[in-house]
């Protein structure tokens, strides 16, 4: 046998050194195994790290000693396979020195390095991968269980290289079409029917903006199915179709019954409308009484001051002055008083106080008269009235809401008297003015203008309040709607205004801008349209 040259020996040594360096730096555990005895000859640092054993400890082991008891036979079979076939792979587990178990992919092959021949065993730690696979399978089983519990059919049809096939069907979908043990098919369930019969054409189909397609099909046996189909692209660029199928037969039956019930219900609408109108009238009266109670409290506040003055002055001064003057006239003081200007001024001042008392009394009478005019309790029927008188009496009654805070600007045009229910029209004015005052935070202005438009009288209220947002503008006339918060008002004020105007065959216009204010226009017919409408009601 020819002895290798020195250069060949150097190349072999360099090759072995390079191989050894690669083994030492590898991220996988690498074992050199004796092909005869299966003893571990050498290991790299990664093998020591994975197993927890030192190189010296590993050198005393056979290759299968690294595995759990139940896998040692499999490790021995892999060793025999490599000994005969030259290579082999298998997924096994390491039992570490600390008793932990690691999943590893084992790849073994014969290696010749110079004059040496051994089995190289590469072991890659796949513990995390195996755990994820187990978790994935558990999660898949969990969601499959959920899908099988769903009352609707759920299926997935995959399309790879233009070859569709059903990838998944839950239990409900199988029961709907081909039974749990039935033969699978490739068509969409919406295009397939048990027994090979052609499915009926869709009776209703909708394609949403996000690409979801939905349709309904009615089958000869009376069943009605709703199909919802959605499409998505998989990571491998193939397409899948998600099929959700609902048996809506019972829902359709209920819809037909509901349609019949609605047709019958329409016949009762007029009766219910009359009943609701009566209830609305009761609400009008309730709101009116509540408002009057609120105003009476304010009027009482206005009355207390002049009333106290009147009682004290009239009871004391009037009687005292009469007695004093009588005494003076009958005594020698008469000439003295006439000559003493100071005494004269005192007596004149007392007489002036009685005049103040008389003015206060007149003010009380005026307030009471305005309250009576506002309520119009003695005028329950329609009458011809001057709108401006109603406005003035209402302003007097709500004076406590406005004083020292809101200035009222009047611009009364020449308008005719109108035929109406005066107490209800005053109710309109009061509700609108109070709403305007409550919309003004701090000081502000209310502008009231009267004019005519065609055969109507127009009363316009404009305030400098906070205004109404666009989303609330169309709802302000709804019963119960309010933006004032809990405990402030009933939400019926403008609803009652609207109803009274409708009863009078009038109209209402509303304009508002947030932060600038609101304008309300009350339009009332001059003729007896309101009376005619009430008579028909």
Structural account:
With 537 residues, the chain is of the alpha+beta class. The protein contains 16 helices and 18 strands. The protein has helices spanning 6-25, 45-51, 55-58, 72-85, 127-149, 171-177, 249-266, 269-330, 333-339, 341-375, 387-397, 399-402, 422-439, 470-473, 493-503, 529-536, and strands at 29-33, 40-43, 87-95, 101-113, 116-125, 153-160, 163-169, 204-207, 213-218, 224-233, 239-247, 383-385, 406-412, 418-420, 444-453, 456-463, 507-513, 517-525. The strands form 4 sheets. It has a 6-stranded antiparallel β-sheet with strand order 7-6-11-10-9-8. A hairpin with a 2-residue loop joins strand 15 (444-453) and strand 16. Helix 11 packs across helix 13 (422-439). It starts with 5 loop residues before the first helix and ends with a helix.
Q: How are the SSEs placed, and which strands pair?
A:
Layout: H1 6-25, E1 29-33, E2 40-43, H2 45-51, H3 55-58, H4 72-85, E3 87-95, E4 101-113, E5 116-125, H5 127-149, E6 153-160, E7 163-169, H6 171-177, E8 204-207, E9 213-218, E10 224-233, E11 239-247, H7 249-266, H8 269-330, H9 333-339, H10 341-375, E12 383-385, H11 387-397, H12 399-402, E13 406-412, E14 418-420, H13 422-439, E15 444-453, E16 456-463, H14 470-473, H15 493-503, E17 507-513, E18 517-525, H16 529-536
Parallel strand pairs: 13-15
Antiparallel strand pairs: 1-2, 1-5, 3-4, 4-5, 6-7, 6-11, 8-9, 9-10, 10-11, 12-14, 15-16, 16-18, 17-18
Helix pairs in contact: 8-10, 8-15, 10-11, 11-13, 13-15
């Amino acid at each position: 046998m020819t002895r290798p040259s020195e250069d060949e020996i150097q190349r072999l040594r360099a090759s072995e050194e390079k191989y050894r360096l690669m083994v030492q730096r590898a991220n996988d555990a690498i074992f050199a195994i004796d092909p005869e005895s299966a003893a571990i000859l050498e290991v790299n640092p990664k093998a020591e790290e994975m197993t927890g054993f030192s190189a010296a400890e590993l050198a005393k082991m056979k290759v299968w000693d690294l595995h759990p008891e139940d896998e040692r036979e499999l490790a021995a079979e892999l060793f025999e396979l490599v000994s005969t076939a030259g290579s082999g792979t298998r997924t096994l587990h390491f039992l570490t020195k600390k008793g932990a178990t690691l999943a590893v992919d084992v790849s073994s092959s014969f290696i010749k390095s110079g004059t040496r021949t051994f089995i190289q065993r590469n072991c890659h730690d796949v513990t995390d991968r195996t755990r994820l696979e187990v978790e994935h399978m558990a999660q898949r089983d969990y969601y499959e269980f959920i899908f099988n519990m769903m009352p609707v059919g759920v299926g997935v049809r995959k399309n790879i290289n233009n070859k569709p096939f059903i990838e998944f069907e839950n239990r409900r979908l199988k029961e709907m079409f081909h039974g749990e043990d039935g033969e699978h098919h490739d068509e969409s369930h919406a295009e397939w029917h048990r027994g090979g019969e052609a499915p009926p054409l869709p009776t209703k189909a909708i394609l949403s903006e996000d690409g979801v397609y939905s349709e309904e099909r009615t089958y000869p046996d009376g069943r009605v199915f709703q199909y919802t189909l959605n499409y998505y692209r998989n990571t491998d660029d193939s397409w899948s179709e998600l099929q959700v199928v609902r048996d809506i037969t019972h829902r359709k039956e209920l819809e037909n019954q509901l349609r019949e019930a609605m047709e019958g219900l329409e016949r009762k609408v007029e009766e219910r409308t009359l009943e609701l109108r009566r209830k609305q009238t009761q609400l009008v009266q309730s709101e009116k009484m509540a408002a009057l109670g609120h105003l009476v409290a304010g009027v009482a506040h206005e009355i207390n001051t002049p009333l106290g003055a009147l009682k004290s002055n009239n009871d004391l001064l009037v009687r005292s002055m009469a007695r004093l003057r009588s005494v003076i006239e009958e005594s020698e003081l008469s000439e003295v008083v006439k000559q003493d200007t100071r005494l004269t001024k005192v007596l004149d001042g007392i007489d002036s106080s009685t005049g103040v008392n008389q003015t206060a009394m007149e003010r009380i009478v005026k307030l009471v008269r305005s309250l009576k005019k506002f309520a119009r309790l003695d005028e329950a029927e329609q009458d011809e009235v001057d709108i401006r008188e109603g406005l003035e009496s209402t302003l007097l009654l709500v004076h406590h809401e406005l004083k020292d805070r809101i200035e009222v600007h009047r611009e009364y045009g020449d308008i005719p008297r109108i035929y109406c229910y005066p107490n209800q029209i005053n109710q309109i004015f009061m509700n609108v003015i109070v709403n305007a005052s409550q919309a003004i935070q701090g000081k502000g202005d209310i502008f009231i203008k009267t004019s005519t438009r065609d055969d109507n009288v127009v009363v316009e209220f404009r305030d400098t309040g906070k205004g109404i947002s666009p989303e609330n503008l169309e709802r302000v006339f709804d019963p119960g709607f309010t933006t004032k918060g809990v405990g402030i008002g009933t939400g019926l004020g403008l609803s009652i205004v609207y109803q009274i105007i409708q009863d009078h065959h009038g109209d209402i216009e509303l304009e508002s801008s947030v932060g600038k204010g609101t304008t309300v226009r009350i339009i009332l017919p001059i003729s007896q349209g309101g009376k005619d409408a009430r008579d028909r009601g």
